[in-house]
């Protein structure tokens, strides 16, 4: 390799004062670039860049930056390389700072930068102070595979192009290949169609069970080990077991691990029913209802007393969330449950008791539909109800037990005494997976906390207090949130999420997948996930917008600022990962933002704020401009309301009537958008449109970039409409499908 690159070059020449920086460039660097696979059109030499921040002199002349080499892949800059004289330092100091300034320049924005002085080669990532690769040039053969894995043109990937396609049915006959799994499209949520996840116990967030189920089926096989290190309500672990996988449910919150332990505890349902009857009989005989009985019960039975609630709560301690009667009756009910001798039965009863707590407290708000729920689940705050509805404790407990019975009956074929050894439920932190060996996990599906959105430990105080589940100061320190009672900073959150991703990379097998669910509105956090995952060695494989099947109270109150959907970001662990290359966008990302918005509107025939936000996040991930979104477009609402029409009923943004697209959107997408709009208008007017009328109506709106031929319009028309006499009518099912 050494001779192939440098043709018997004598490295002793580096000691000569005549061998300077220009010689390093031509004699040593150029052969390396050629061998890596860069052609002359991909090597940009000595490009002048205006410094975006500095100017000098009394006349404020701009400072010009001139990197030696910019390496291009698909018209974007992949990395920067600067040559130095043989005696100069290239692993620290001013030279490194100089080349770093090239890499972060708005016109460049490359992930990697490198220096070579003829003797040595050093490679840096933007986010690392030390070289990620450093070697003596005479030993380049020993480092070539690693260098090529980082810097060859095939090591970089760019974003996908929005196109119009009519999908064809593909018959899957090939054997299962972990590496070649395809990404799933958005899945229609089935909501409350299973007993194992609904009607058992509330939780602050819950993934749609059928979405998780489909992802596990797609990326793993029976017998594989599936991990969720932010286990939450346990949907991942339960669905993995239902699909005959092994599962690990990990969560820092003891409430979370209690719920899954209790749900999956194998019991004989007849024995469980007998225990319920014993508890009911004993309760009805001695239910504390009078003032004297209530006072006596409060002395005799334990209940939470000095457990402090989070700031912002309407009361200061847990006991003040309950009336004296509720405390007495709940304390008595818990006492009877704890008398049961069988551990699994006792735990199953406590699961229903814990679910009862959600409705038997002073925060319980009645809804317009007649149902009730606690403020902590609805508002993420312990807020006393202005008009409290006092429910019967025993009847509420019986209803919750029905949910427990239904769930256990549903999971019994797959999760029972014979299979429970395949499930691990662990209270712990995602930042420390040391209980797992390196490369021992087959698939990871996880839904981590989103910054300051939900402080899980703070909000779980009521349940943890009643269930005697300890939460330590160390637990609070390790919780990956921003804010909360411990006022954790954004930096704290970033560090904990980053460490968690590092651990997930360590335990995942090669050629396996991680699906990372995220719904944060701040682009900075998306940037953190991608950068950390790539730094660990993950390869970004694509993101999919996925609705969660419900609209939150906060979303209904703030439709423009609260997002109801989420993205599932998929990564692969491969030997030679490709890196996302930032698009060269110059100083302004406005054009690509506008183009993305118009593309989404064309794709969906009008787009919601969530669809627009999702597509911008995906494009930002794939083209590396999330940092610019953060600076310039933290709130899209003013831009959208100014440039597009908005329908309050459908909550859709659309192109202003009789206006053209401002940016270059795929030709067939534009044709399709205007065709459907026109045909819908004809339907309202009860008219059938002739082909020549259609062409005349939409052609003026298509004078943007390439103007379509009539045949192009006809081909799209045949996809979305059918002939009706001498004209055309829109298909009843809407339209053809779009691919990306």
Task: Explain what this protein looks like in three dimensions.
The chain has 740 residues and is an alpha/beta fold. The chain has four domains: 2-157, Alpha-Beta Complex (tt1808, chain A); 209-265 and 414-580, Rossmann fold (3-Layer(aba) Sandwich), CATH 3.40.50.150; 269-411, no CATH class; 583-650, no CATH class. The chain has 26 helices and 23 strands. The protein has a seven-stranded mixed β-sheet, with helices on both faces. A six-stranded mixed β-sheet has the order 1-4-5-6-7-8, sandwiched between helices. Helix 7 (254-264) crosses helix 11. The protein is globular and about 100 Å long. Residues 53-60, 552-563 and 735-740 have low confidence and may be disordered.
Would you kindly provide a brief summary of this structure?
With 740 residues, the chain is an alpha/beta fold.
Provide the fold topology:
Blueprint (H helix, E strand, L loop, with lengths): L1 H5 L14 H16 L6 E3 L3 E8 L4 E5 L3 E5 L2 E8 L10 H10 L8 E5 L3 E6 L7 E4 L3 H12 L4 E2 L51 H11 L5 E4 L6 H8 L3 E6 L2 H11 L4 H18 L4 H10 L23 H15 L4 H15 L6 E3 L5 E3 H4 L14 H19 L11 E5 L13 E6 L9 H4 L1 H6 L6 H6 L11 H18 E11 L4 H14 L1 E10 L5 H5 L7 E9 L5 E2 L9 H15 L4 H15 L2 H7 L4 H7 L1 E3 L4 E3 L12 H18 L6 H8 L11 H11 E4 L2 E4 L10
Parallel strand pairs: 5-6, 9-19, 10-11, 10-15, 11-14, 15-16
Antiparallel strand pairs: 1-4, 2-3, 4-5, 6-7, 7-8, 12-13, 16-18, 17-18, 20-21, 22-23
Helix pairs in contact: 5-6, 7-11, 8-13, 9-10, 10-11, 11-13, 17-18, 18-22, 20-21, 20-24, 24-26
